[in-house]
Amino acid sequence: MKTVPLRWLIVIPFVVLALVLGMAMYLLSTITIANIADRVGKQYIKEVEGRIYDRVQDFVAPLTNIMELNVAAFSNRPELLDNLSSVAGRFYEQATPYSQMTFISVATTDGRYVNSSQNPIKSGQHNIAANFVHKPLTMEGFEYDPRVFIGPKIDSDPTFSYDPRVRPFYNLAVQNKQVTWGEIEPYYGFPVLGINLSAPIYGKDGQLLGVTATSIALVELDKYLASLDLVEGAYLFLAEGNGDLIATSEQGNLYQTTNGVITRSNLNNHSNKAFQLASQTLEKGIQELEVEGKKYLYYLRTIDLKYGKQWQIGILIPSSYQQTILDSYTQSAIIITLILFVCIAGIGYLVAWYIGKPIRRLSQAANDKNLKSIQQLPHVLSGVREINSLSRGLSLMADNLSDIMQNLEEKVAERTSYLQGENEHLLESALTDELTGLYNRRGFNQVFEGAIQCAQQQKQQLTFVICDIDHFKRINDKFGHTVGDLALVSVAMNLRHHVRFSSDIVARYGGEEFTLVFLNTDIAQVLLRLDSIRQGFERNPVVKGEYITMSFGVVHVCEGDILTMEELIEQADKKLYQAKNTGRDQVVI
């Protein structure tokens, strides 16, 4: 029988394996890379679409939130409409945080009208407009005065007759008897588009009291789409259901005015051929389009806004983007395959040398037919355990193996104990706010869920409180964030002082916002504790002689009532928002 050297017996299979594995890897990677390139293109579209979707929702949210807040306030407290000067101050405070908010207004059934307005292009300066100050139904502009709200008249603003009851926003809301979207159209005197939302106000007896409205300028959406860093040749658009454009990534007018007639730019009449073709395929999802010999991945998604309004996001990505990825990865796959082949062949040779050399020495010693030759072999002949066992004997190998196992068990036990301690430390860090030592939001969500279940099972009362430091930004701006952190610690100590550690919960919910949960406690007792907390802030400055106040939103759940954590947080957040918007430093139930 023909014999084969041990070295070749090891090297040849390694070389064959390297060839087979390399070819299989190349074929598999070619298919996989093609799929990856397709997925990367679609994933890129999804990522861009998600950013635009979130931006639009956040952009429009103040429009609906403020309108809903005002409808609720005027419906429940119709006496507010008797003094529209105070309402002007309310509108001014509501509009100030939002650069896109152009108008917040209310019109009564007797024709009185007041709004807070700002320039839709140069945002940041809010004024008041009213039609009842000097002469009924005569619109005038006024500066904002924090004491009397309607300040000095702005002489540069025009004075004109204005009856809101004949305006579209008023009539549509009254006619529809519900929240109504206005048409997207340019602001008078400004080259930007805007949209309004109006709602009728009814008293508790069902009598119409007036109409409140909000309006936002859409120019920031156009700027946002244009600012996104897209792959070369990509296009974005935001449009209404009929194809009228709201914003695009392309420069150009969104409407034209001819002989006083305003015409909105539409997808089908846009100068960009890709937009024109996209207007013919308004099916949701990802499709492939070809524009003048150039292929695109086209994605369309509907944005559902509140009260039945729908907009559409359109994204067109050139297929060349995917081809570039495919070419790059294919080249990398070829290089990696070659490197893998060389590495496997080299490893095979090294393994053959490493194993073969001590075995040849054993063979030579055994063939020497001389016991002394075996005895002269090194104590450690090779790094391979099986080869060493031939020279040291089965007995020595058994002893060594026993020692190895004993040491291994000790190390495993030691490592297990260490990892348990680390896990406990990490769990505590993950659930605790580092600054205040209170639960963080994650920790609070865990214990709050359990508290709700316990209260429902045992039919106990539960009171949930969200509180927020008033004007906290002023402390940071005045003293710096280090002092601001000390203030947060002081607030945490005050809150912790007024809860029962055995059953109640206190947590830092985020920023300057804290949460309290009182279990099996009457609402009257809860209110006494909250009042004690407020008195504590009145008596003791949080830092450097600086006193703070807090606003509280409270939701009380009686025995047997069932509310989810999300419902409790949502209701308490609304109460807190009400406390903030009605003077701060108060508890709203």
TrEMBL record:
Q: Which residues form the GGDEF domain?
A: 460-589
Pfam family name, one: GGDEF
* UniProt lineage: Bacteria, Pseudomonadati, Pseudomonadota, Gammaproteobacteria, Oceanospirillales
The organism is Marinomonas arenicola
Q: Does the keyword Nucleotide-binding apply?
A: no
Q: What is this protein called?
A: diguanylate cyclase
Which keywords appear in this protein's UniProt record, sorted alphabetically? Membrane, Nucleotidyltransferase, Transferase, Transmembrane, Transmembrane helix
A single GO molecular-function term is:
diguanylate cyclase activity
**Annotated EC:** 2.7.7.65
Reaction(s) catalysed by this chain's protein: 2 GTP = 3',3'-c-di-GMP + 2 diphosphate
Q: Which Gene3D superfamilies match?
A: 3.30.70.270, 6.10.340.10, PAS domain (3.30.450.20)
PANTHER family given in the database record: DIGUANYLATE CYCLASE DGCM-RELATED (PTHR45138:SF9), REGULATORY COMPONENTS OF SENSORY TRANSDUCTION SYSTEM (PTHR45138)
Q: Where are the transmembrane segments?
A: 7-28, 333-355
The keyword Signal belongs to this UniProt entry's keyword annotation: no
